[in-house]
Amino acid sequence: MIPRLRPHGSIPLPPAGFFQRLIEAGFDGDIETGAASRTVFSTDNSIYQIEPTGILFPRGVEDLQITAAVLSEPAFRGITVAPRGGGTGTNGQSLTSGIVVDCSRHMNSILEIDPVRRIARVQAGVVKDQLNQALKPYGLFFAPELSTSNRATIGGMVSTDACGQGSCLYGKTSNHVLGLRIVLVDGSDWWSRPLDPEAFTEIVARQDRVGEIHRTVERIAREKRDRIAEIFPKLNRYMTGYDLAHIFRSDGRFDLNAILCGSEGTLAMIAEAELNLLPIPAHAALINIRYGDFNTALEDARSLVALNVASVETVDEKVLGLARGDIVWTGIARFFPDDAGGATNGINIAEVLADDEAELERKLAEVTAALATGPNARHLGYTIARDHAEVEAIWSMRKRAVGLLGNVDGPVRPVAFVEDTAVPPENLAPYIREFRALLDGAGLSYGMFGHVDAGVLHVRPALDLTRDDHIKLVREISDAVVALTRKYGGVLWGEHGKGVRSEYVPEFFGDLYPSLQEIKRAFDPETRLNPGKIAAPSGQALLKIDDVPLRGETDRVIGNEIRSAFDNAAYCNGNGACFDFEDTSPMCPSYKATRDRRFSPKGRAALMREWLKLLAEKGIDAREEAKRLRRSGPLANLARRAFNSLNPQNRDDFSHEVRAAMDTCLACKACAGQCPVKVSVPAFRSKFLELYYGRYLRPLKDPLVAAIETTLPLVQRIRPAYNLIVSTRAGRMMMRVAGLTSLPRLPQISLAKEAARLGVPLATPSRIEALSPRQRGQSVIFVADAFTAYFDPEVALAAIRLARKMGLSPFLAASHVNGKALHVHGYLGRFEAAAERTACYLQRLDEAGVALVGLDPSMTLAFRSEYKGMLKAAILLPQEWLVTNLDRLAASPSSAKGKNFRLMAHCTERTNAPSSVAQWKQVFASLGIDLQAAQTGCCGMAGTFGHEARNRPISERLYAMSWKPEVDASGDTDSLMATGYSCRSQVKEIDNKRIPHPFQVIDKIMSENPGIPQSDVA
């Protein structure tokens, strides 16, 4: 039995009454001080870990003003705050031991779009892709591109002056900021916009903090003009934050936003932004050029830039190799074929933009002609992507490069600390050669990619920061890279901000650093805003890269064996791909529904990591504890578990906070498929629940849900009584007492009886082994899961009819326990016992050489994940089986006439079998039907999740996000279908509509094909 766990109490709490005072002052947002929230907000995408004392989630600018006003009260003058956006910073920009101010949960509204003036006004928590989605109908977009665009907030982009691919054409965030609504440390609410001389004169005459700030900045810009021109590099990626070089615009106006953009929350809290918008390019294409070595790709990139392409991105062989194993690869593989001339060890992606197709083709012809001759003809080959979806898919691969570098085995993994250097593009090739020599000399592996047109290189050396010798390398490599960038006229921070690397600011800014200190003092006299970053008062030190706690300190306590045993929880690098704002993206539904970062894969991984550390500190090996628990049996320690559950001393057990986060997980496995690092929450969640409920009592619903596969045959016999319970108010109330809701009715039809009536035999090993080789080739075994078999048997019957129309002999697998419900709820001992029996049965069938086809994607894919190591047999998804039998399909001439066919695929299927939707399209295309894939996220049911009473609000919220609009929009000519049983059940429960499985649709439109030889299996 695991012990009670208490998080460390070393974090200094704010002075008594601070949070209560906020509430009294009218703060309307959320305040979180629990150990779970502090743990989740202690990391970002960097190598550092600093636990805050609390987190504020303001609802508007008024809450920011209240926060500043309360901080200004004498009793609270020792408290510091740090604004936080998407939490994906790679250098600890938003990490603080003070209080985090996070605008992403509530301040995420697009306030105004003016398509005529091409201006948008947004709150700081709006996500970049969210804004561009809203702008698309107007033909406009917010230009600065970055790899985290689906979770990066506008406030965060402004704070780091973010940019990425295409910056030579579009510039950085600061180039598109027209105005910033900021809250100063004294509570002043100020709109910072460029000022003409007359307006500026009025401002500097003010005798308040706003006036003081403008006077200070203008004086420095005027008095230090020559030194500013000498020190600031003439780069596309000039030094961001406190940007003295761009205070006066080309039109002569004074622009304080040059100081604010890139200031990383050290000067003010950003509430709103007014942004410049650009027309969406009418036509785009990508030329994907392959090279035998990375250096050649780098050298050729300069030639490509000279051809006036819009942007050039370079990727090395390590990143490309990792991308080949990622979910995105199936959609882009044809653009990066293998070459007979050798392996591809580098690629250039050249973007071409045009106003019309003729211009696009002319530009493409010019570039490809140059590639065929002279010094440019050093590549292995190239492909061209013209279709918008194809272009987006390739850019998606490039965007995922940062996260993909973390998808390696073992404790030595690429980490961020020198990952965004920038040098003049003409110096990039020799600079990279020296950079690679530096890393090679240290014996390190690494991945490289970057925006070569802008001279920016992303490099992540692979280190294990639990090792003392690797910790030392952070300092050694950082110092060496700083010297190298200085040698080649560049900067250490070309894109991702300074953060903990601020210790190098005085070296780069030289004798201008005191001017930065003056500006900091004018904005923040008492250093309350994100102290230690960019500029510190005289006598106070900037943060140093080796003085800030590393994540590795926690990982060292856990140990490498435990880290590797818990499904990448401890290897989450904070990339934040699970914070995707898009409702139609599968990952992560619980975060989308709650906007609570604890309820995301990143949040749960952080909590699991902390939980493992607390166990390790008490000498507990979670693996061994699980073994002891299984040996003791389910009823052992029942009295102790009851006592622990009732004992008030256990209320502060950290395990409760972890469990609360795990309870909201839908176990959809989107993280396992979409996370670049392959963090699998359902896998480590099950291991946690097993141990947690070894100490505490389970809720009543758990044994009921866990036993559902074994009890359904009994329930089928008392079908009228069961249906009465789930259909009446009294029965539903009784079920809610047990923690269950929205249970489906059992249909009158019985699959077993109907199959027997149709003469469909059960697939026993002896029966299948008795078939001749020819008969086995003409047979198929449908592996019907319990939920489909008992609650939706028509799907299995449609599969049987379809198989016969295809000239095949169908068999039904014998009743078996898949065990997914057991696994989801942490009954791992019982799951393994059931899975071994089922695996043995299916393996014998598979060895006979007959195709095994599952009906439900989630249950079928369990055989590939939960059964890993137990089952070698391939249980095919329906579409995987059908695409191998396209010659047996034939549609009735008029069966599909006038219909629009749309597929709503299961989340697990989309993310863990990425070819699925394309295969369904191929199947329907063989029937003469153009199948459209509906853009939907999670339906909210997710197996048993939506049937649990506590989860029902989240379940219905998720359904309303993307499924309900799709279902409501379907008309008489639309044929909607859904592959997942739980999805169809959710539609029936909420909208009282029946959505068929694709098998049922194909069965209806499929005609008998006289050209197909019929099976002779008796």
Residue-averaged pLDDT: 92
User: How much β-strand is present in the residues?
Assistant: 5-15%
Radius of gyration: 30 Å
Largest sheet: 8 strands, antiparallel
Helix content: 40-55%
Low-confidence stretches: none
Structural class estimated from helices and strands = alpha/beta
Number of separate helices? 47
**Total number of beta strands:** 27
Instruction: Using the alpha-carbon principal axes, give the shape.
Output: globular
**Cα end-to-end separation:** 56 Å
Topology:
Blueprint: H1 18-24, E1 30-32, H2 35-40, E2 54-57, H3 61-71, E3 81-84, E4 99-102, E5 110-114, E6 119-123, H4 128-135, E7 140-141, H5 154-160, H6 167-170, E8 177-183, E9 189-192, H7 197-204, H8 209-223, H9 225-231, H10 257-260, E10 269-276, E11 278-279, E12 283-291, H11 294-306, E13 311-316, H12 317-323, H13 329-332, E14 346-354, H14 357-371, E15 381-385, H15 388-399, H16 401-404, E16 413-414, E17 421-422, H17 428-441, E18 446-451, E19 456-463, H18 468-487, H19 505-509, H20 513-523, H21 551-558, H22 560-565, H23 589-594, H24 601-617, H25 622-632, H26 638-646, H27 654-663, H28 670-674, H29 681-692, H30 701-706, H31 708-717, H32 719-727, H33 729-737, H34 751-757, E20 762-763, H35 765-769, H36 773-777, E21 779-783, H37 786-791, H38 793-805, E22 809-813, H39 820-824, H40 828-847, E23 851-854, H41 857-862, E24 875-876, H42 878-882, E25 900-904, H43 907-912, H44 916-926, E26 932-933, H45 952-969, E27 974-978, H46 981-991, H47 998-1005
Parallel strand pairs: 2-4, 3-4, 20-22, 21-22, 21-23, 23-24, 25-26, 25-27
Antiparallel strand pairs: 1-2, 5-6, 6-10, 7-11, 8-9, 8-10, 12-14, 12-15, 13-14, 13-18, 16-19, 17-19, 18-19
